[in-house]
């Protein structure tokens, strides 16, 4: 039976990685877990501490850590976060922070926000008249617009192209 902490570990472990079994967690998701669960507080435990501990407990060539190594990492972080407590008590407190937590992206917040933004950007009914001139009815650009800018000079708006070498 997986503990609450282990369930949280697994939810974060598979985040953004469909091939993950949830048995191991990468540094990015480990950091996110520490952030989302409030283990990182920016004072006693910073994101640098989290990275350092992750690299300390992982196997030399590994990019991920197991739940066993995760427990080691949490013991270490708990000593920073809850200085006055024993490692075991500190670990329990950290696990309490983790209970029932989900990665903050669930709940569709990011997806909804991005979808909404894209809808605004691609909704041609909201375009102002200056944009409309360049679009046909489907919202696609009209080809064959006449380019009237004279780009033959030296730099922006410079008149007199081809006069550089002429002597007066």
From TrEMBL:
Keywords, sorted A to Z: Cytoplasm
Subcellular location: Cytoplasm
Region ranges (Disordered): 126-168
GO MF, one example: tubulin binding
Gene Ontology CC terms: cytoplasm; microtubule
InterPro entries from the UniProt entry: EF-hand-dom_pair, TPP/p25
Full protein name: EF-hand domain-containing protein
Organism: Otolemur garnettii (Small-eared galago)
